[in-house]
């Protein structure tokens, strides 16, 4: 959720909390009761969308992490074997080419990492028989190819997750805007008489409508009653 959406959801929750703490204000006012329940439903819908968005983001992180870790682990095992073989035959060039650390691999962007993995695969393939001595069998070398392909194959899935997350963000914004408009047009209007008959309650209601500025941790004016609040 964006900061603006978080602020707006907090406002709506505060309004709902106000009526929860002041149920007497709803007595005999069926329309106001119905509006408060509709606001509660709006908030529930937003929370469901928010949970779906969070789940999508978590899935994306897991997908990226698992595939990248498997790919790098396979590469490090093969590199260790190549390095040992290079030392055994005193091949300086091969030793230098295989001197690649976990840090080096982790800092690469996706496309560069895949390119590097392919280079390691090409380096290991011609000496596959010799690497058996250093506990690097052909399946380990082949894993570089299969794991890099699997890593690339995750792209469409990750893009789909990002698309769903983006849609959830748009859906949340749309639902919050709708809930805000409903609160302004319905609940605000029905609370207006309290400005004269119960100014204390009305003041507390208006206070519940104040924007909380998340970044600074303090309240920010004007309240949502001002038409400039929501663009």
Describe this structure in words.
This protein has helices at 3-21, 30-88, 92-97, 102-106, 110-124, 128-131, 138-191, 194-197, 199-208, and strands spanning 211-213, 218-220. The two termini are 17 Å apart. Helix 5 packs antiparallel against helix 7 (138-191). Helix content is 76%, strand content 3%. It has one domain (3-220). With 231 residues, the protein is mostly helical. It has a two-stranded antiparallel ribbon with strand order 1-2. It is built from nine helices and two strands; from the N terminus they run H-H-H-H-H-H-H-H-H-E-E.
- Major β-sheet strand ordering: 1-2
Domains (count)? 1
Total beta strand runs: 2
β-strand percent reads: under 5%
Uncertain spans, ≥5 residues at pLDDT below 50?
Answer: 214-231
Q: Helix proportion of residues, in percent?
A: over 70%
**Spatial separation of the terminal alpha carbons:** 17 Å
Radius of gyration over all CA atoms, rounded:
30 Å
Query: What overall form do the CA principal axes indicate?
Result: rod-shaped
**What's the average pLDDT?**
84
Largest sheet: 2 strands, antiparallel
* Oligomeric organization of the protein chains: single chain
Query: What series of H and E elements makes up the topology?
Result: HHHHHHHHHEE
* Structure annotation, total helices: 9
Indicate the structural class.
mainly alpha
